Amino acid sequence: MKLYSDPFAPNPRRVLWLMAEKGIDDIQVVRTETMKAEHRAPAYLAKAGLPLVPALELDDGTVISESIAICRYLESLHPEPNLFGRDPLETAVIEMWTRRAELLFATPLMLAVRNSLPALATLGPQSPERAASEGRIIETYLPLFERRLGDSPFLGADRLTMADIVAAASVGFGRLIRFEFPGDCPNLRRWWDVMRERPGAKSGR
Amino acid sequence: MKLYSDPFAPNPRRVLWLMAEKGIDDIQVVRTETMKAEHRAPAYLAKAGLPLVPALELDDGTVISESIAICRYLESLHPEPNLFGRDPLETAVIEMWTRRAELLFATPLMLAVRNSLPALATLGPQSPERAASEGRIIETYLPLFERRLGDSPFLGADRLTMADIVAAASVGFGRLIRFEFPGDCPNLRRWWDVMRERPGAKSGR
């Protein structure tokens, strides 16, 4: 299998992080840099269907895009450690927190960077208003994650799951606009201190 | 179990649609209208954690929010007809198309309505620029869905799946700003003619 990945983009990092947690080392990582428009090359578009990374190419030629779909598929091949849930209810709670992590933190943070970092202007138009509105989403919902991490060591369950990976995989990208968890979020800061030491935190660069 | 749902909001419709496809009739639907701020009532917030519908309350008091997490949980209780995939690869392809339907069509359409329909100004600030930018996302990616529906009768597989429900459940809301599939998208129009006759299309009003 081949994973088309950009070492600087946040979504492929979710897959690389999962691979590191599961010790998956038999997937060839093919560097596909968005800043060099490699995700818009005709050969890539013919495979992936969309100018987006990551994409996973199976040995039979099937290509799966969308980081979470790729991650769930890899979990089916490498079940341990379990990151998506061991029974229907646990799976539902983990998916709820994975989507909250994505929609209320990771994606807004990515869009805030995308719309404000001068170096990314080459990728398309930027909007300071949009960057600010995404920043307000993060600010609004950080207390939700802070409360959750007061009740649970990790976001989705009492162990690391996909929800933590989705949130943590975007923090490095957020650093480009100096994002950090604020001082009044001690639980998030403790969680991040744990996450930044995981093997996945260092993967794929 | 109880489903907190707003008959006018697009995301709860995904759950109602799935319930109709599976013939699930033992869940009490509790009307929770966002236009009346019922999703911000303290009792609801204490349950759901966030001012968002839908939310599913289990008999043991556990509350799951996020429509797709709720739908996958309900599939575990009512496996037929299968909407999420029968094996890991089919599940991955369906999840890829479900996310494309959500991120490249349903959510942009919802945000276009939210940011432009005068009646929704009571829900919070609106931005014509944001509505236009969401409209451009829909326009950019409709050809992707049109091509897919040239190769396959449904979005996720050769039968109706969650991907179709996510896309179709938002069309009615889009009608509020007169959205319809354009004439140069015959496959999408054929697909919508099939979807609008499904039991789920009439559910929950």
Task: Give the strand line-up of the largest sheet of chain A.
Answer: 2-1-3-4
The radius of gyration of chain A is 17 Å
By CATH reckoning, the class of the largest domain in chain A would read Mainly Alpha
CATH architecture of the largest domain in chain A: Up-down Bundle
Order of SSEs of chain A, N→C?
EHEHEEHHHHHH
Main beta-sheet strand count, sense and barrel state of chain A:
4 strands, mixed
Output the number of helix runs of chain A.
8
Mean pLDDT of chain A: 95
The assigned structural class of chain A equals alpha+beta
CATH topology of the largest domain in chain A: Glutathione S-transferase Yfyf (Class Pi), Chain A, domain 2
How many domains of chain A? The number is 2
Gap from first CA to last CA of chain A? 19 Å
Low-pLDDT parts of chain A are none
Shape of chain A: globular
Name the chain pair whose interface involves the most residues: A-B, 29 and 29 residues
- The residue fraction in helices of chain A comes out at 40-55%
Subunit organisation of the chains: homodimer
Question: Describe it for me?
Answer:
2 copies of one chain form a homodimer. Chain A has 2 domains: 2-77, Glutaredoxin (3-Layer(aba) Sandwich), CATH 3.40.30; 88-202, Glutathione S-transferase Yfyf (Class Pi), Chain A, domain 2. Helices cover 50% and strands 7% of the residues of chain A. Chain A has 8 helices and 4 strands; from the N terminus they run E-H-E-H-E-E-H-H-H-H-H-H. Chain A has a 4-stranded mixed sheet with strand order 2-1-3-4, covered by helices on one side. In chain A, a hairpin with a 5-residue loop joins strand 3 (55-57) and strand 4 (63-65). In chain A, helix 1 packs across helix 6 and helix 4 (88-114) runs antiparallel to helix 5 (128-151). Chain A is globular, with a radius of gyration of 17 Å. At the A-B interface, helix 3, helix 4 and helix 5 of A face helix 3, helix 4 and helix 5 of B.
